[in-house]
């Protein structure tokens, strides 16, 4: 949303320069009886403002490119595997678990932000399932590389320390 507002600001500024150039051009024609074309300097000014708008907007868009982080949860530089795990967590796990990095706040399963499970524990829970009286986590909700990805994401998102 910020990039859009930024771009719109520069577009509006370019249009304002064009409008002012047209007004000054009309006055200039009225006083000098020159040709009916806008002076070249105004056309160049509008072109420069337009190019600046495009360049700054493109730079801002590239600079704000998603680096795989989740600033609101203090999670930075997610790998491709962890990003895949984040997506899978959103599809399969967020309905039961709380995890800030996934914007999940369900109350059925444990709060993963508080539990901070290491990757091995998450993999074990995914493989075997869990039951603690409040409901049941089925075994193998995700399997193989998908299970690895979810476990990697949860461990990274919670800042879990792997046991030594």
Tell me what you see in this structure.
By secondary structure, this protein is mostly helical. It folds into two domains: 2-63; 71-158, Cytochrome c-like domain (Cytochrome Bc1 Complex, Chain D, domain 2, Orthogonal Bundle). 59% of the residues lie in helices and 5% in strands. The protein is built from six helices and four strands, in the order H-H-H-E-E-H-H-E-E-H. The protein has helices at 2-32, 40-63, 80-92, 112-115, 119-128, 144-158, and strands spanning 98-99, 104-105, 130-131, 136-137. The strands form two sheets. Strands 1-2 form a two-stranded antiparallel ribbon. The chain has a two-stranded antiparallel sheet with strand order 3-4. Strand 3 and strand 4 form a beta hairpin. Helix 1 (2-32) runs antiparallel to helix 2 and helix 3 packs across helix 6. The longest helix has 31 residues, at 2-32. The two termini are 44 Å apart. The mean pLDDT is 77.
């Amino acid at each position: 949303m910020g990039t859009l507002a930024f771009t719109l600001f520069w577009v509006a500024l370019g249009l304002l320069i064009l409008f002012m150039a047209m007004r000054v051009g009309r006055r200039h024609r009225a006083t000098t009886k020159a040709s009916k074309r806008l002076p070249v300097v105004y056309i160049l000014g509008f072109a420069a403002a337009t190019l600046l708008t495009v360049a700054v907007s493109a730079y801002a868009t590239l600079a704000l490119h998603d680096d795989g982080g989740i600033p609101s949860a203090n999670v930075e530089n997610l790998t491709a595997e962890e990003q895949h795990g984040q997506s899978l967590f959103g599809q399969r796990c967020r309905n039961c678990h709380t995890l800030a990095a996934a914007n999940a706040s369900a109350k059925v399963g444990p709060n993963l932000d508080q539990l901070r499970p290491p990757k091995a524990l998450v993999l074990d829970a995914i493989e075997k399932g869990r039951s603690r009286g409040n409901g049941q986590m089925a075994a193998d909700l995700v399997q193989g590389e998908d299970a690895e990805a979810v476990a990697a994401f949860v461990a990274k998102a919670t800042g879990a320390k792997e046991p030594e």
